[in-house]
């Protein structure tokens, strides 16, 4: 199984790139989706999050992501505590899904992980694509998308490794600051490169 990484930053357009890769036939596993699955109602993951962060489970028994986000985005210690609960479970879910894909004869998988570089995962992957935009574009998109003021947007950006730092670890950089057609052409080129490996 060939495992490639896909990463970017908040409001960099990684979801757009993921959609394009899937349209080209790529199997993309999304770490954010896995992270949601491991804290579904009734899971040990949700029980552990609820114990560590009282008050973040809503009356419907589901995780209140807004409340949890407010607690962890501005506090590195709280974020680390959350990651210690979530990350091992996500890793386990990822390995299970990769085994299932391999059993179906799938030869390549792309793992879409926001904190791929920060977690050191790029070191064991065959290649990494980084979705990049200039920081001012990223900040403007984030403010527009999430209705944030400049200070709140800066706080969210500061919680992540800058895209300029991430691109230093990239096998491929997808510049998503221009037209969609330009992004699509770059995505097609990256997918061809991934297909050429092995």
UniProtKB/TrEMBL annotation:
It is an enzyme of class 2 (transferase). GO terms for molecular function: dephospho-CoA kinase activity. It is found in: Cytoplasm. Pathway: Cofactor biosynthesis; coenzyme A biosynthesis; CoA from (R)-pantothenate: step 5/5. Gene3D superfamilies: P-loop containing nucleotide triphosphate hydrolases. Keywords: ATP-binding, Coenzyme A biosynthesis, Cytoplasm, Kinase, Nucleotide-binding, Transferase. Pfam families: CoaE. CDD domains: DPCK. It comes from the Bacteria. It catalyses: 3'-dephospho-CoA + ATP = ADP + CoA + H(+). ATP binds at residues 11-16. Its EC number is 2.7.1.24. Belongs to the CoaE family. Catalyzes the phosphorylation of the 3'-hydroxyl group of dephosphocoenzyme A to form coenzyme A. This is Dephospho-CoA kinase.
